[in-house]
From TrEMBL:
GO molecular function annotation: ATP binding; ATP hydrolysis activity; protein-exporting ATPase activity; proton-transporting ATP synthase activity, rotational mechanism
Protein name, as recorded: Flagellum-specific ATP synthase
Gene: fliI
All residue ranges annotated as the AAA+ ATPase domain in the record: 167-355
SUPFAM superfamilies referenced in this protein's UniProt entry, alphabetically: P-loop containing nucleoside triphosphate hydrolases
Location relative to the cell: Cytoplasm
CDD domains cross-referenced by the UniProt entry: ATPase_flagellum-secretory_path_III
Cited Gene3D superfamilies: 3.40.50.12240
Domain of life: Bacteria
Main location: cytoplasm
Keywords: ATP synthesis, ATP-binding, Bacterial flagellum biogenesis, Bacterial flagellum protein export, Cytoplasm, Hydrogen ion transport, Ion transport, Nucleotide-binding, Protein transport, Translocase, Transport
Amino acid sequence: MSILDRISATCACIPAAVATARIASISGLAVTVNGLAGLASIGDRVTIVRRDGSETLAEIVGFSSKTARAMAFGSLDGVGAGAEVRLPVFIGARAPTPGGSLRVSEAWIGRIVDPLGRPLDGKGPLPPGPEWRAVRAAPPDATLRARLGPRIDLGVRAMNLFTTCRQGQRLGLFAGSGVGKSTLLSMLARNTACDVSVISLVGERGREVREFVEDDLGPEGLARSVVVVATSDAPPLMRREAAYAATAVAEYFRDRGKSALLLMDSVTRFCQALREIGLSTGEPPATRGYPPSVFAELPRLLERAGPGLAQADGAAGQITALFTVLVEGDDHNEPVADAVRGILDGHIVLDRKIGEAGRYPAIDVLRSLSRSVPGCNSGAENALTRRARSLMSVHADMADMIRLGAYRPGSDPRVDEAIALVPGIETVLAQDRRERSTLSASFDALRDVLREEPVPADVTPS
């Protein structure tokens, strides 16, 4: 980038003027502003000046007649009626994209940032990239984006075997609280065969952020990751922005031809932030208190992940995404879980009973599926996993009778086979959080347990 280009980029960030307005009222989380009619639009960023002269950033989220409604990215302490609101006014091509933007660069890898692109790790300022990227962007054109790439090694045996994933696929991790979602995410961040990981912690408990980064993710995971954090005490706009910002960072790497892994924990807290915003702006609650805009916004976020635009040579960058869904009361049919499951390319269910029995990751393979499995595994591998699923299903159906001693060995050969082989399958599915298992090693382990012949190398897909 030449000096002239840098000067031009800097000048483009300078507003032609600054419009001032006044706060008329504050109700809950929303601020009503007079004086911005004809100047502001949805998504514009404004600055609110507190009584002591300090400032906080806010965003226009709605209008009522000639008054604008804004919500702050920070605390509203010290803000009252009559407080000054400043809106930078740009002209023509210099106008920024509504909803904010980030200057992402390769130097962000290994860093922890907030949703506004400010460093949180004490390692100094973030080197800006050459261009601004819109935080709220449209997904690639459905008819022009590439197809899914080859299957990707996730490093987790249960997922490699029963929910095999392709590059650019989007999966949901559905679980109640305390079932091991964060630990599974850290395993994926460390072990998945990708170029870079982007981790979004939306509404995370403040005390757990450092534990996740230092203990679960570890230095080796952080070295190839960008972590975007908004803790549970952050305003809803910041929690919402954590999801958008992480997706924008992943898009930056995808558009440079890289294979990016996007891990978001959790979509549920993203929807809760949207609910707070919608209710504060006067939107009526609909399904279980969620306003309609929440379910309109979900596909706009989730569809941004996936393959990028196909290039002339057929190559394309990919965003392989895994979104956690915190199911309330272990109800997997609650509105957010139901909506997300219908949008994504597969779902992985973590079961509390499996975790309580001591097997981690606590993935219920009978309730989990990946829609790309038939096309990315060989026929022999699909037959292997189908047989394992069938045995586990038979064992689950007869579990109570076996436990009570009501089943007599020899009554049903299929049940006898399940009793003999399922404990070995359970052993294969169990994995320590520091252990990595490749795709080939995962299928070899299952094949050994089921006592089947190895698959010839030339029929195994890449």
